[in-house]
Structure to design on (191 residues):
């Protein structure tokens, strides 16, 4: 059993009223004199429906066991994204509708973790952050770098993110894959 205060975003599957759901986001919330609650956004595994609800911190749920296997993202064709199992080299496809949150971060031959639910390939999990190259952005204007101004930038996968004014085309940046936020400019470690 797992408490609602132990939820983890994107990686935890629980049994809610006989249905398997994935925890997308959660937030501990407490108003001054009111009881604390955990506000949660869940996705039904079978239907894909999004549910927003709140639980008490002492509510318990049955944890659904998942298995993870190393996979390589191969390509996307039509409405399917294909992955190769790194152990047996078998290719398996997933509908792109299941991967809308992670597909903008993926490049061909990228290593990911395949999530198996009840022995069936269900989804993929990316690392918490990735290093991506800026392919398009506007130049910063002198004097704008003093404040915390952000500008739009496009990375090599086509994803649009917000970056500080000093970032220019060709720079490599670290991006949080959970929310698409810029973390830092990446520089190669010295050898």
């Amino acid at each position: 059993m797992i408490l609602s205060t132990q939820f983890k975003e994107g990686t935890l599957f629980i049994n809610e009223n006989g249905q398997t759901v994935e925890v997308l986001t959660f937030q501990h919330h407490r108003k001054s004199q009111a009881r604390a609650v955990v506000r949660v956004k869940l996705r039904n595994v079978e239907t894909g429906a999004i549910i927003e609800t709140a639980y008490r911190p002492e509510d318990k749920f049955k944890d659904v066991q998942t298995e993870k296997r190393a996979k390589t993202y191969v390509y996307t064709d039509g409405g399917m994204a294909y992955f190769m199992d790194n152990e047996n080299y078998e290719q398996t496809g997933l509908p792109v509708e299941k991967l809308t949150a992670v597909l903008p971060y993926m490049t061909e031959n990228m290593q990911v973790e395949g999530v198996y639910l009840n022995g069936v390939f269900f989804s993929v999990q990316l690392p918490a952050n990735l290093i991506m190259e800026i392919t398009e952005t506007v130049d910063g204007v002198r004097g704008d770098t003093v404040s915390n101004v952000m500008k739009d930038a496009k990375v090599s996968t086509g994803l649009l993110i917000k970056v500080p004014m000093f970032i220019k085309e060709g720079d490599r940046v670290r991006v949080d894959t959970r929310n698409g936020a810029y973390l830092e400019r990446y520089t190669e470690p010295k050898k």
